[in-house]
Amino acid sequence: MIQVCEKPNKMSADVAEELVFYCTDDRFFIEPINSKQLLIIDRVSREITLEDNSGQIPFSASRKTVYGLVGIIHLIAGPYLILITKRIKVGTLNKQTIWRMCDTEIVPYARTTASLTSEQKVYNDVYLSMIQQVLATPYFYFSYTYDLTHTLQRLYYTAEDFLQMALHERADVRFVWNQHLLRDLCVQPEMSPFCLPLVHGFISIKPCSINGEWFTWALISRRSVYRAGTRMWMRGIDQEGAVANYVETEQIIEFRDFRSSFVQTRGSIPLYWTQEPDLRYKPPPLIANAPHEEAFGRHFESQVLCYGKQVAINLIDQKGKEGKLCEAFKHLITTSNRQMIRDNVRYEYFDFHHECRKLRWDRLSILMDRVTPDRETLGYFLFRDGVVLLEQDGVFRTNCIDCLDRTNVVQSMLARKQLQAVLTKMGILNENQKIEDQFSFEVMFKNVWADNADIVSTEYSGTGALKTDFTRTGKRSYMGALKDGVNSGIRYIKNNFFDGDRQDSIDLFLGKYQVEEGEGAARPCPLKENRDPRLYFLPGAVFISILMIFACVLLPSEYSSFTLLSLLFWAAMTAVAVIATFKQGRQLVNAPRLCMSALSHLTVPPRGG
Asked: Please, what is the end-to-end C-alpha distance for the chain in angstroms?
């Protein structure tokens, strides 16, 4: 056992919890409740100052209550202030309240856009809609006192002076989604009470009862800002070792003077690879012709330094389109010449679709049995009344192709195994009891993990997760498979025709692309449509040909040889138009325009290569 002092997860000066926002023609005034200080933003000079409240606010100023500042975004018309106007309480951890952001308001510094050209106004409105789209994506979370970006174990092993830092200063930058928007405020330390870090992902906090004992069970999923984006436009790894759709998920138990934490991670296969949409239902993943070892090594070395030992659970198909990725991933782990990787990373492969075909999802027990020694070795974090009883010495890093559906199923099963162990150790469960037999808690556990799957999937792919019928009920059903088919169809439409704009929105929000002054006038705007309008003739030809087929079938009062020939002609035209459309698929899909592809500097083999 390791003796430590219990440290309060609180900073010396909390973020202001409730604010009054005043607006005049030339200034914004932001007044924290129960504070004598006043944040003043000059709408003309754009200067931001903090002053003592001595009656500067005019009586004519409009006012409203807000619950925090998301930050400031700079667009063509100038800066915009983003305010949190509605929040919902999620629950309480460590006696501190966690909130979910429900509504925002974007307020321009400039009183008018008359100085902009008509083209600039259009582009500015598009940029605004992009920011609104990200803010409306479920869900953003925050706390005025609790550090949501760090796990319990990291928090308890930090120095006392670290815990006294401002919340935005000590936050893990991997998980702060508004760090770019706070840059105008956080440069001045005295403005820390107005800098509220936002976490994107999923949080559930539930009071639970088993055997008459009440405890708090929480699930926190934190999405990384590095290589953030949409399902098909953001895959694989970058040169710094960051991977797409990286999520840290922490399961927390609070019971009397016990606190427990179990952490897992998910993330895209750490190779340079792409799967950009081209109108095909499932474009094959393409591995870049590039030196993967350096970025691969950086990824796992950073994982080991942050979490300890790694068990890399790979759930993709062994054959078919995913097979080459599978082999490349295994090869890099098993042949790595880096000592840290050889000593701390273990590869575990499970062909999810093959093993669980024909709805035989009970076969997931094979994987659970195989990783039981790892689960016992890696452990979990357990703290009681100033004493650390157990530490988590590593994490399961799980991935499938998307790191969504299959990944969430396996993570929920690993979390259940850990929960069984910790509830037994705390004395909530008796030695001979199982979680599965606690009906009300079992239903809650399954539904929360299914909600986690749906929300994380919506944030990355645009739809809820697949396979959640198994997570919610413990069984795979034909109705669940039908629902998955509907979601897969919606994913296809969004990935091909909407996700380019959504990727741009995320890049703009995170500051990967920054709007420059004069865009649309003195300099070109990347939003300008440069696609050849003649390309739209192809899908138009498909539509007209199909329409004519229906006309040939439905309109004639009697069928003749001419009708048959017309039907054959239009069927042939449809086939030709469809083939031509798919050949131009890469040019027809909705592609990002603000940032170049992260793999644009690498050589990617041509289609079919």
From this structure: 55
Beta bridge partners of 28: 23, 41
d(C-alpha 470, C-alpha 359), whole Å? 10
* H or E segment and range at residue 65: strand 62-66
> Positive or negative, the Cα torsion across 582, 587, 589, 591?
positive
Tokens of 124: 């500015």
Question: What is the mean pLDDT of each successive set of 10 residues along the chain, which is 609 residues long?
Answer: 41 80 98 93 97 94 98 98 98 97 98 96 98 98 97 93 92 98 94 97 98 98 98 96 98 98 98 96 95 97 98 96 96 96 98 92 96 98 95 98 97 98 98 95 97 98 93 87 93 96 98 94 92 87 94 89 93 94 94 74 49
The candidate with the shortest Cα–Cα distance to 316, out of 277, 278, 355, is 355
Phi-psi sector, 426: left (phi>0), alpha (psi -120 to 50), beta:
alpha
Tokens at 336, concatenated: 């790595």
**473 touches 446 (CB < 8 A):** yes
Helix 561-583 and helix 537-554, axial crossing angle in degrees, nearest 10? 160
Q: What angle do CA 412, 244, 363 make, to 5 degrees?
A: 30
Instruction: Tell me 595's DSSP state.
Output: S
DSSP letters, 226-273, are TT---TTTS-SB-TTS-BTT-EEEEEEEEETTEEEEEEEEE---SSSE
Q: Where are the domains of the chain?
A: 2-142, 202-507, 533-588
Query: How far apart are alpha carbons 422 and 435 in whole angstroms?
Result: 11
The answer to whether 120 and 520 are in contact (CB under 8 A) is yes
Long-range contacts of residues 388-391, Cβ cutoff 8 Å, at least 24 apart: 388/1, 388/2, 388/3, 388/4, 388/156, 389/1, 391/2, 391/153
- Is this structure's pTM higher than 0.70? yes
- Residues paired with residue 65 on neighbouring β-strands, in sequence order: 20
